[in-house]
Structures
1.
Amino acid sequence: MRTNIVHIGAEELTYEIRAIVNVGQKLQELGIETHWENIGDPVAKGEEIPQWMKKIVAEIAMDDASYAYSPTRGVLATREFIASETNKRGGAQITPDDIIFFNGLGDAISKVFGFLKRTARVVVPSPSYTTHSSAEAAHAGDRPVCYRLDPAHHWYPDLDDLEKRIKYNPAVAGILIINPDNPTGAVYPDDILIGMVELARKYDLFVICDEVYHNIIYNGTSTLPISDIVGDVPAIAMRGISKEMPWPGSRCGWIEVYNGHKDPLFEKYVASVLNAKMLEVCSTTLPQLALPPLMSHPQYDSYLKERVKRYEKYSNIAYDCLKDVEGVIVNRTNGAFYMSVAFEEGALNHRQTLPIANKGVREHVEGLVNQESISPDRRFVYYLLGSTGICVVPLTSFVTDLQGFRTTLLERTEDNFRKIFHTIAESIKQYLDSDR
Ligand SMILES: Cc1ncc(COP(=O)(O)O)c(C=O)c1O
């Protein structure tokens, strides 16, 4: 090329949650049975969509209007429905014009970060859901600016660390909160959330709060929507239907803008995000049309409740399997459907192994782990995959130096779920013992 065509942020675009699938598929070809615990898609893991939901969607698909473009911000009746639900909660009040629909939150995330001024940074959690951290880092063409989630304190944000990142980095213009969190499964208590908003107010920042899992909370925990505590701080909440409905294939999510007119720069920035959407015309129409009838259906709440109850039960099975294993820090998941397990510092080295019976699989794994730069947790993840077929994601791929792995709680069959977590626990012990 006579001129460099590579984007300044190209190096920052990684998504290990899907990249690990290539390794899993290769090992599957070599003869192992794979358990995919890497990706947060309830439908791919066997969630059955109830008949009443399918019927509503099918009826809408019979209406020609569902094949048309929709307004750039999104279908008006749907935005009215959402604004009224948000306003009912009290807290920050919005109009339908404070809502913009996207093709899934993935699209919202890429535009919200992509249209920030290049030198303005949003401080993101570490570990961090990579779609956020990669999009933020790519927009700046630099490594993400992170605040610490503390595995020794339920994976809650470390407010002192957050304040330091803001104070000593004048480029920071915003704070990203993911609550409930992916990849940790943490649900933040009110005082932590209030502390984060206070920091935004003190340093004149805006807040982005990803609340895609807001209705998937359990084990007696509760949390506040950001609209309840934001006061006069400019903020964006991100919500969607991928996880709670669950309908990830709909590619449908939205942002709610609070205090959109209180700061002229924030107002201009939000307008640029809307204009970016306008260049694309609009987002997927059919799921927007389906949203109000689905969410107000008499069986919607009970269907969601039943799933949440299962995640609660499985979060406890997983926690009980892993909590007494030496060498790892384990927190019970209280929201969403992920669990992050961190190895204690120094627990992993490059000599530990797990037995792999299949020669072809063993040789392939050995080839992968013998690369110079492989992180210790990735090495564990490859051995776990080769030895047991369980596919999880290395924690270091979520922008953290903490070694560990993220798994999901989505396996539906209880016997299989118990077997998987029992096997993970035994494999951790065996792996750590292999070099003692
Ligand atoms: C915290 C969080 N935000 C956003 C998304 C993306 O959601 P969508 O399917 O709407 O793109 C995910 C998907 O896993 C997620 O975990």
2.
Amino acid sequence: MRIKPDINLKSIYDINTLFLKCCEIEAVFFDLDSTVMKSKSGEFSQKTIDFLNQLSENFKIAVISNNKNEEYIRKAQSQVNFPVIGCAKKPDIKVLLGVCDDMGIKPQNCAFVGDRPLTDILCAKRAVVKPL
Ligand SMILES: [Mg+2]
């Protein structure tokens, strides 16, 4: 069985703020590599930072990555104002649910944007977070 997101986005820039508002989404979570930054680059582009900053005016934002490299996660964190969390062990849902809990937002009012069906999308589906 193929695990599919609710919406197929070509890129994060296709995220429709109004649609998410209509779905009562309050927080948007992102995978890191190949979702909000080029794989293994460790650098957000200025375009992505500007986009995420704009998005954060309407939603709480966090990056939730399976990357275990502390230095890499620290480097990513140093470039942005929202949480960048590593070692998430997706599709395990514990870290994702912990972030929802910390933000005081129910999972069903969160969306998760990621590139990998078996980690990102499956994790979102298991946590009842909207997978994009
Ligand atoms: Mg990825």
3.
Amino acid sequence: MARRSGREAGLNLIELVVVIAILAAIAAFVMPRYLQGSSKRADGQRGPVAAARDTVCKSNLSQVRTSLQTLAAGDPDGRPPSDLAGLGLPAEVQRCPIGGEPYRYDAASGRVQCVHPGHEAY
Ligand SMILES: [Zn+2]
């Protein structure tokens, strides 16, 4: 078997496997820190993906509340609707993006809350 020599040979298979293994090791180290799920890190900070999902939950609640206010303003008695199904919003806007729990709606007061742990104040 003839071996190529010098720079023209480029990467051989062993070198390619070593590079891929190093990249895989780096990805395995970094990705759990980046994704982070909904758990907290030791320093109390959350990963960017979890923080983004928190923001989506706040945005969903804002959309639901705005729709409720709009419907209540159009109602002759000014009452909020009896349930969230009548809002005409997509199903994914009516539940928490992290836990998938449907938002809790109190028709008497017109209040909407997320029941996911840590989202009660949104
Ligand atoms: Zn939530």
